[in-house]
Amino acid sequence: MQKKQKVLLINPQKKVLKGEHGRLSIYPPLGLMYIAGAIEDKFDVQIIDAVVEDWQKVENEVHGMSFENLKESIKKIKPSVIGITGLSFISPNIHKVAETIKEADSKIKVILGGAYATNSPYEAIKDKNIDFVIVGEGEETFPELLDAIYKKKNIKKVNGIVYRNKGKIITNKPRGFIDNLDNLKFPARHLADYEKYFEIFKTGHGAEGTGRCVSVITSRGCPFNCFFCSAYRITGKKWRARSPENIIKEIDFLVKKYRITDIYFEDENISLNPERMKKLMKLIIERNYNLRLHAEQGMRADTLSFEVLQLMKKAGFHDIVIAPESGVQRVVNEVVGKNLDLKKVEQVVRDCKKVGISLGCYFVIGMPGETKKEIEETINFAKRIMKIGVRYCTFNNAIPIQGTRMYDVAKEKGYLLKDGKELEKSILSNRHEHLMKTKDWNPEDIKKYYNVAVKQNARHALLSHEMIKHRIKRIGNNLMHSPLLTIKTIIVRLKEIIFGKRDF
User: Fold this and answer.
1) Per-residue pLDDT tens for 76-122?
2) Predicted pLDDT at 301
3) pTM of the full predicted structure?
4) Same domain flag for 139 and 203
5) 221 and 355 share a domain?
6) Are residues 324 and 412 in the same domain?
7) More confident residue, 59 or 309
8) Alpha helices by DSSP H, 203-319
9) Above 80 in pLDDT, residue 185?
10) Does one domain contain both 300 and 404?
11) Beta-bridge mates of residue 265
12) How far apart are alpha carbons 252 and 259 in whole angstroms?
């Protein structure tokens, strides 16, 4: 029998963002597991999660195993191809991993996929240590590319990749998105040490809950066109959903194999089709899993009827997040382009309180086209819905990421304070720095509003009975396992409460 070629998949070390301090964001690399599931029949696949391998180590804002240890692991495994993934904000670590791979063995082919690869393929391929960049979903592209590499087929026929040929950057035909998600193999979770993740989760780092938490994706794509969002570039504008039966099959497996207690649904639009959502909830209820379910990606309020919320609660939903983005109807419609009725947001707040689902809300401030008065109204709207029953409101600084409509408008009208490499560097180093100036406001104005919003939310959390219990549990766990980091985060939270300061 012919020996399988070795393929290694690496989740790079993370950059510790300001504000994370005492709580590290540790999650199994689900995207890599999907890729592994697509190729493991033909290849000898291994996964290294460089974040979890040495998860308590944080040096020079890098969280995870040292690059030297990573190099030694690569030498030991001896793969011929290595795939890397990662978000744009860890791009320096992605490039460092690619460099480390070539130092271990210059003959290894390096393939980059994921969000950074899709958003900035030409920037990524300039790195001589990266041989191929996959743009978009990789479950079909990666196996085809491996086949071309190992069988020396024509690389030009592999759609959805960017690469170099004799120093010239080549862009192949784009690949369409995968229509039938039920055809995808389940993530190869067995290639990760889930027991290690479960132990980490118990300490309060990463997923919350009783410890045995997993992430599940039931749909991909977003048909909407929010001003500040570039997610459509990765998953497309067409919403594609797995069937409820296919999802239940995966949950059945997870319950049996891993004895899970919590599921985090990572979809951008899990409830976009209310009838599908109701069917899924009914199937979960029928099986009486006794799971805690969570959805923190920012659901659309207008997909959440009282009936849907009742079924979600009965199925085990503990907490969800909705994303009004603004508390001003004009801004929601004309600036964000979300076309969401804010009256529906308030109704969902009341309905969640009635059925007993904990609710959070996401807002964005500092968007071109938004006035100072409207930002103030948004902060007041958040205050009002917190009084009605929202557990917390997270305010995000509007960031002009390339590929978004907001970036295009800001560039066209001369609102950008930085662009190109300088803009990218600023976004990577501090997500709270405001990088635009309009006729309506300047960065100092947005900073003041942001501080007011942070202070308002922090004080609500301080006085909320539910949040008090939540904080005490988290701080207790973190003090036991990461005392220095936890002390730092306590200081950050106190600054939020007293001054509204949050790492500007």
Assistant:
1) 999 999 999 998 888 999 999 999 999 999 999 999 999 999 989 99
2) 96
3) 0.90
4) no
5) yes
6) yes
7) 309
8) 232-235, 244-258, 274-287, 306-315
9) yes
10) yes
11) 216, 295
12) 10
In a domain, 466, yes or no: yes
pLDDT at 501 over 90: no
Find out whether 114 and 87 touch, Cβ atoms under 8 Å.
yes
In a domain, 468, yes or no: yes
Residues 125 and 248 in one domain: no
Nearest to 454 by CA among 391, 492, 501, 389: 501
pLDDT over 90 at 21, yes or no: no
Query: Buried b vs exposed e over 341-376: b needs ≥16 C-beta within 10 Å?
Result: ebebbbbbbebbeebebbbbbbbbbbbbbbbeebbb
Q: What are the residues facing 264 on neighbouring strands?
A: 215, 294
Going by C-alpha positions, the residue among 335, 343, 338, 445 that lies closest to residue 384 is 343
Average confidence score pLDDT of the chain: 90
Closest CA to 87 of 119, 39, 133: 119
Residues 411 and 368 in one domain: yes
Task: Please report where in the chains the tokens 């079909």 appear, as a residue.
Answer: 140
Which pLDDT band holds residue 424 (cuts at 50, 70, 90)?
confident
Give the residue-averaged pLDDT of 323-345.
Answer: 96
Buried b (16+ CB within 10 A) or exposed e, 164-183: beeeeeeebeebebbeebee
What residues make up the domain containing 378? 193-499
- Domain shared by 54 and 104, yes or no: yes
CATH number for 13: 3.40.50.280
**Does one domain contain both 283 and 374?**
yes
Q: How many domains does the chain have?
A: 2
